[in-house]
Specification:
The protein is an all-alpha fold and about 45 residues long. The chain has two helices and no strands. The mean pLDDT is about 80.
């Protein structure tokens, strides 16, 4: 589904949209990872 959307997007607006989605997902993953690390450190301490 994601790949098909990428292939169908010909104009730059769609490409910018998908780039934004990818960046947003990366940010969320980083935030979750940091939260998990903080929880682990808090449990150990």
């Amino acid at each position: 589904m994601f790949v098909a959307s990428r292939l169908n997007s010909t104009n730059s607006q769609d490409n910018n949209y998908w780039d934004s989605v990818v960046k947003w997902k990366n940010e969320v993953i980083i935030q979750i990872r940091n939260s998990v690390i903080l929880c682990i450190k808090a449990n150990i301490a």
